[in-house]
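Students often ask what a holo structure prediction actually looks like on paper. The answer is less mysterious than it sounds. You provide the chain, you provide the ligand, and the output is a string of discrete structure tokens encoding the 3D arrangement of the protein together with zinc ion.
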Amino acid sequence: VGKQSRRKWLRRANSRCIFCEEPSVTKEHIWSEWMHPILVVTPEDEAVEFLKVHESKADRLGRLRVRNRQGSTAKKTVRVVCGTCNPGWMNDLEKEVRPVLEPLLLGVPVSLLTAGREVVARWITLKLIVGEHAQLGIAVVTQADRSAFMHERRIPDAVKIWIGQIDSPKWKHGWQRHAATLAWPGEAPPKPFRKNVQTTVFGAGKLLVFAMVSYLADYKGGVAETFAHVMPRLWPLSADRWPPERMVTEQEADRFAAYLDQVLRQRNVGWRPQPPEEA
Ligand SMILES: [Zn+2]
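The corresponding structure tokens follow.
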């Protein structure tokens, strides 16, 4: 497949709804309108890191090549969802989550019951899936899992979520995503070659989210259990208490955001710099 036709294919693929696969996508803000006043955007909020991708090619010395994008989610728009899904089931989910989500965005200490946890986890999953399509060709969640999410609101098995509270200008609508291709030593990377692990840290008002999406079998990563009093696990459901004992510090949030970088530096993790030669 030549470069030209690959580009054309990517453009075509990108113009279909990531959920129902119908053509004709519309431009949408990442955050719904009711959230905008809570997230209050000022000009100096613009310089928030948006994306960090571990490129599928290493540099000459085999070091990780990392791509950075600047941006804030407050004004971020994406064109990946159609005019049926967005005002339909996606809007239903937004309406369902609002009463539970609003106190979390405002930092009001409320208890979070199982039903509330589930709906917040579903809303976060929706944001993760839409957010990972802000750039072409680096999405981790599979089409099968996106379809199951649309039809049954099924959160993919690959998704794990932790949440905390934070009071930080940097993180109130900051978004940082890391994506990479990981394989266990001696095992082949996914075929066709694609990104199979991503971590996302995003802030929305006083809510801080750390999410891991991993299609690498038996990979158990994420926020350590010793952190459960600050950053309790939301999904899969846990008995971790909410509200947390204290707020997450900005420094801790930055460390969560750098999580995948640290994983890639570990010796027992095989990071594949590029697709292997076809046999
Ligand atoms: Zn659709």
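The CA atoms of residues 174 and 203 lie 5 Å apart.
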